[in-house]
Amino acid sequence: MDVAPFEQLLKQAMGLDAASIGSAVVQRAVQERLAACQLPDAQAYWERLGTSAPELQELIEAVVVPETWFFRDPASFAALARLVGEDGRLLQGQTDLRLLSVPCSTGEEPYSLAMALLDAGFPQSALRIDAVDISNRALARAQRAVYGRNSFRGSDLAFRDRYFVATASGHSPVDEVRRPVRFRHGNLLDGLMAEAELYDVIFCRNVLIYFDRATQDRAIAVLKRLLKPRGWLFVGPSETALLSDHGFISAKLPLAFAFRKGPAAGSETKPRAAPSLFVPVRKPPAVAAAPLPPARPRLVPTPAAPAEAPTGIDRARRLADQGHLADAAAHCEAHLRQHGPSAEVFHLLGLVRDASGNAEDAAEQYRKALYLEPDHHEALIHLALLLRKRGDEAGAQRLQRRASRLYQGGGA
Ligand SMILES: C[S@@+](CC[C@H](N)C(=O)[O-])C[C@H]1O[C@@H](n2cnc3c(N)ncnc32)[C@H](O)[C@@H]1O
Prior knowledge:
The chain has three domains: 4-63, no CATH class; 74-261, Vaccinia Virus protein VP39 (Rossmann fold), CATH 3.40.50.150; 312-407, Alpha Horseshoe (Serine Threonine Protein Phosphatase 5, Tetratricopeptide repeat), CATH 1.25.40.10. Helix 17 (343-355) runs antiparallel to helix 18. It is globular and about 60 Å long. The strands form two sheets. Strands 5-2-1-6-7-9-8 form a seven-stranded mixed sheet. A hairpin with a 2-residue loop joins strand 3 (164-167) and strand 4. The chain contains 20 helices and nine strands. The protein has helices at 4-14, 18-21, 23-36, 42-51, 53-63, 74-85, 88-91, 108-119, 136-144, 158-163, 175-178, 213-226, 240-244, 285-289, 312-321, 325-339, 343-355, 359-372, 377-389, 393-407, and strands at 97-101, 127-133, 164-167, 170-173, 181-185, 199-203, 227-234, 248-250, 258-261. By secondary structure, it is an alpha/beta fold. It is 49% helix and 11% strand.
């Protein structure tokens, strides 16, 4: 079967660069769909796609990667909570905070935003989170909001006890978390452009990696239009390099992947400097005077100010979040000496080396993580990005396919 026309159609319809998931995945999706439609061959299915928008949606459903979980990249949520905490007007609910989660997949990301902001003391009544995805199937699961083990990863799951109720089929977020979130179907590359109101914060994570460069540029232009002049954009770990080319300014928090819309919004020029807006020097008096609500225990797994001093890997992660890269690396190394090899620590050390500009060593650390844990999704993605930067496109695609295969058909 010549799969190229189908790949081209998917690119037009949803931006997918077939190389990111592999042609074999697209081919399998086409074969599954033509069998489901009881059509004799690819030509007949191609004709069906030309006349049936619902069938095109079915093909999209067959190729999307809905992989997600609660508090994925927890430093992003910690950074968001801190950002909101620095703005007295927002914290006291004098103004609504508008957030967009696109793509939201099965809902873990927008619900995590709600939990992080509730924990930061933000009043639920002033919180509005639009959650958009191209997959109707993912959105149906998001609205059903019943989550199994795969949605709860990592060791800090205290938020589940506070914000979820256990049901026979999984855990469901409480109304306080669900109420601010509005789900809707949309395509990052077209439908969202009609959006009239702008957002204070946009989370657009782990979708740009499935687009080619031209499509990434289009998507970032959409996001830029949707973001308020000094709004914040959070992307996935492998997507940060793109944004500085579009005039966004990094928050310089290595594991938060947060960017502010630069003053020259609309221009494509690079900013001259990248100040860290998270340096706690400009705290408005209103916030300094207003204590956070006492009842709520901390939620975000990597908080800015813990009650107890963190140890080991948590301490290393915290130091990295704060930009203390050399200290973070030293903690990782000490952890490895003391406790032996660990995929999690090698991966973190890779991120730290990457953020320090030491690509060679970063790649080595990611490889060690993958040696110990061949299915370490994030190490696969990060190593793929490094290889691509070095011009090893074939190697990058091989790793990206491995990463995609982990979740193809598995869902979130
Ligand atoms: C890997 S998930 C990312 C979910 C979440 N943002 C996260 O980081 O955990 C990718 C999602 O992108 C969605 N998607 C792919 N192309 C899209 C597009 N053009 N517009 C909107 N959503 C899209 C897919 O349906 C899928 O749910």
